[in-house]
Amino acid sequence: MTNLAEVTRKRVSKIHAGELSSATWVTAALFLILALFIIMNPAEFGTASNLSNIALDASILLVLAVGGTYVLITGGVDLSIGSVLVFSSVAGAKVMQHFGGAGGDAVIGGLAAALVAGAGWGFINGFVITRMRVAPLVVTLGTLGMALGFALMWAGGNDLQGVPPNLVYRFGLGNILPGIPAVATVAAFVALVAGVVLAWTKFGRYTYAIGSNSESSKRAGIAVDRHLIKVYMLGGLLAGLAGFLSLARFGTTSIAGHNLDNMNALTGVIIGGTSLYGGVGKVFGTVIGTLIPAVLQNGFVIAGLPPYWQQVAVGAVLIFAVYLDRARRDAELS
Amino acid sequence: MASRRLRPSVTIIMALGALTLGYVSACGSNAEGSSAGSAEHKIALITAARNNPFFSPMECGAKKALGELGGGKLEVSAPSTPGDVPGMVQIINAAMAKKPDAIVIDPIDTAAFSPALRAAKDKGIKVVLVDNTLTDAKSYDTAIGANNEVGGEQAGQEMVKALGGQGKVLTLNGFPGQETLTAREEGFKKAVSGSPGIDYLGVQYSKQDATTAASVTAAALAKTPDLKGIWATSYNDMIGAVNALKRANKLSQVTVIAWDTTEDQVKMVRDGEIHALVGQSPELMGYNGVQSAYKLFDGTTVPQSQPLDTLLITKSNVDDPKTAQYFYTTKCDS
User: Fold this and answer.
1) Are B153 and B132 within one domain?
2) Phi then psi for B256, rounded to 5 degrees?
3) Which of A169, B29, B178, B278 is least surrounded by CB atoms within 10 angstroms?
4) How far off is chain A from B47, nearest CA to CA, in Å?
5) Position B175 in a domain
C-alpha cells in the first residue's frame, strides 16, 4: 500500500514539475523575444502604444483560445470556433440592424444574439460528441463547414454592416484607461475568470479529470457527458463573444477573414503547454502562447524582416512546445 | 480570383461544408428562367451566389445585353451554398442536359471546372468565363475579367498624384503567390517606382484577415511614423488598415486607396475617410459575357482573353451616374 501511495505521490510531483518547466520555458521564450525586438528597435517596438497594439491584436484570438484550452484539456478538440465566430457575428449584426444600428438596444441585443448563437453551436458539438459518439475532430470539422455555410446563406454571401458607430469608436477602437484597449481588457478579464475557474473550482477539476481518464471519472460519479457538453458550450459561447468583439472592432462581419482562426487559436493553446493528450494545461500558458505569435508578427514588421519568417518562427516555437510536452510525458512514465 | 467574395481558402471550406451536408444543399440549384422574346438562343449563366452584391449586377448586365440583342433565353443558376464548387460543377452538368447554346460562368476555382466545361465544349456549347479564368485554355472560348495589373497602376498613379510625388507608401496584400492579388501589387509598384520622391516600402501580407491587416498596419506605423500612403488590394485589408489608422489618429495623415467597391467602402470615399477605390464592374462582366456568346454564335472571332478596364473612384466621380455600374449591389438599376 505504501508503495502505491509513494508511486502516486512521485508521479503527481513529476507532473507538476513538468508543467512548471513547460510554462516557464514558454514564458521565458516570450520575454526573450520581447527583449530581442526591444534591443533591435528600441524607439519603435518598446513604446507603450506599440505594446498596447500587440495586446489588442492578440485579444480576440485569446478569447477563442481560452475556450480551446478547456476543450483540449478534456482530450477533445474544437475546429469549428472560427466559423462559429463568423456565424455569431452575422447573428449579432442582423440583430443590430434590426434595432436600427444605433443605441443600447442594438448593442445589448447584438451581444446577446452572438452569445446565444455561439453557445448553440457549442451545444450541437457537445451533444453530437457525447450522445451520438462521433469523434470531436469529425463533429467540429462538420460544424466548421455548416456554421460558415449557414452564416454565408444568412448574410447573402456579403459582409454585413450596421454596427452602432458608438460601439466601434468608444469600445472597439477605444481605451478603458489611456493605453489600455477596451477589447483587450475584456479578453484579459475572460482569461482571468476562466483561469481561476479551471484551477480552483469543481468545474475545473472535472475538466482535468475527464481529460486524464474519462472512464475512472465516470466511476468516480462525474456526469462526464453533461460536463463535456458544458465545456463545448463554453467554447462556443467564447467564440460568440469573440464574434461580438470582432464586430465591435471592425464594424463589419469580415466573413472571409477567419479561415485560420481555429488553427491560430489551437497553436496558441499548444504553445502554452496544454497537452494534446488531455488532462494538462493552464489558461496562463494560453495567454503567453497567444501573445508569442502576435509579438512576432508586430516585431518582424518593425524589424523589416520578410513577413514569411514570422510563420517559420511560430512553427518552430509550436514544435518546441510540443516537444516539451512529450518530454514531460516520457519523464512521467520512466 | 478577381472577386473578393470567394477566395480559394473560403472555397475549400465551403466545399468541406457541402461535403458534410452530404451534398443535400449542393444539388439544389435555384435555377430560374427569365425569358425575353423569342427563344432563339439559350444561355446558361452560372454564378457562385444569388442575391449577392457581386453577382447580382452580373445577372443584370447579362439580362441587359440579351434585351439589346433582341431576345433569347437566360437561365441563371447558383449553388444554394454560396461558393460551393462541387455544387457549381453539378449545375454545369445539369445545365448541359438542357442543351444551352452557351454557358457563361464565373469559375471561382482555377481548375475544378475544366473537365465539365471541356465536355460542354465538345458538345458544341460555347463557354464564356467571366470574372475569373481557368488554367486550362482548352476548356473555354473566351475569358472576360478585370485587368488587375492596370487597376494597380491606376491606384499607384493616383497615389503619386495625391501625395504630390513625395512620401513613404506600402501595399497590404492578402496572400503571396496569388496571381490576381500579385498583379494588383505589381501594377501599383510599377506606377509608384516611376516617381523618385516616393519611397516604396514594399508589401505586407494579411491573409485577408482584418485583424492581421490592422496588426501589420499598426506595426508599420510604429516603424514608419511618417507613412503617407497605403494600397489595400482587397476589402478586409482596407478594413484592417483603416482600423489601425483610426486607433493611431492618423487616418487624415495617410492616403488609403483600396480595391473593391462595397457599400461601406463607397460611403468612406464619399465621407473622405479614404481617398480612392479601384472598381471592377460585375455588371460589365455579365453584359460583355452575353455579347461575346452572341459573337461566337455568329462565328465572329473573339480574343480568348478580354481584359476589362477598372475605374478609379474618388470623391470627384463617386456620384457620377456612370460610376454606379462599378458598385457591388443587389439591385438592378435598369
Assistant:
1) no
2) -105, 130
3) A169
4) 12
5) yes
Say whether A254 and B243 touch across the interface (CB within 8 A). Answer: no
Residue B264 scores a pLDDT above 80 = yes
For residues B228 and B202, is the Cβ–Cβ distance under 8 A? no
Residue of B nearest to A146 (CA): B17
Do residues B6 and B53 touch, judged by C-beta distance below 8 A? no
In a domain, B2, yes or no: no
Q: Does residue B72 lie in a domain region?
A: yes
At residue B85, the pLDDT reads 83
Q: Is the pLDDT of residue A226 over 70?
A: yes
> From CA B325, how far away is CA B57, in angstroms rounded?
8
First to last CA, chain B: 27
- Please give the average per-residue pLDDT across B198-227, as a whole number: 92
pLDDT digits (tens, 9 = 90+) for A30-49: 999 999 999 988 888 888 88
Which of residues 280 through 319 in chain A touch B, CB cutoff 8 A? Answer: 294, 297-299, 301-302, 304, 307-308
Distance from CA of A190 to the nearest CA of B (A): 19
Please compute Rg for chain B using Cα positions. Answer: 21
Topology of domain A19-333 in CATH is ABC transporter involved in vitamin B12 uptake, BtuC (1.10.3470)
Closest Cβ opposite residue A142 in set B20, B53, B263: B20
List the domain range (segments joined by +) for residue B250: 148-279
**Is the Cβ–Cβ distance between B30 and B50 less than 8 Å?**
yes
Backbone φ and ψ for A31, nearest 5 degrees, come out as: -65, -35
pLDDT at A27 over 60: yes
Instruction: Write down the pLDDT at residue B245.
Output: 96
Which B residues, 143 through 182, put their C-beta within 8 Å of a C-beta on chain A?
176
A205 contact partners, CB below 8 Å, separation of at least 6: none
**C-beta pairs of B223-228 under 8 Å, 24+ apart in sequence:** B223/A41, B223/A44, B223/A301, B223/A302, B223/A304, B224/B168, B224/B170, B226/B167, B226/B168, B227/B167, B227/B168, B227/B169, B227/B170, B227/B201, B227/B254, B228/B163, B228/B166, B228/B167, B228/B168, B228/B169, B228/B253, B228/B254, B228/B255
- Touching check for A178 and chain B: CB below 8 Å? no
User: Do residues B128 and B188 both lie within one domain?
Assistant: no
Q: Determine the Cα–Cα distance for residues A183 and B3; give it in Å rounded to an integer.
A: 31
How near does any CA of chain B get to the CA of A150, in Å?
8
B208 vs A256: CB contact, 8 Å cut-off?
Answer: yes
> Domain count of chain B?
2
Q: CA A293 from chain center: how many Å?
A: 13
Summarize the confidence of residues A154-167 as an average pLDDT: 83
Residues B104 and B153 in one domain: no
Nine-digit cell at A304?
523589416
Q: Taking CB atoms and an 8 Å cutoff, what residues of chain A touch B236?
A: 254, 256-257
> Do B178 and B249 share a domain, yes or no?
yes
Predicted local distance difference test score (pLDDT) of residue B16: 45
CB B318 within 8 A of CB B266: yes
Distance in Å, alpha carbon of B39 to nearest chain A alpha carbon: 31
Report the pLDDT value the prediction gives residue B6, as an integer from 0 to 100: 47
| ipTM value greater than 0.95 | no
In this structure, the number of other CB atoms found within 10 A of the CB of residue A31 comes to: 10
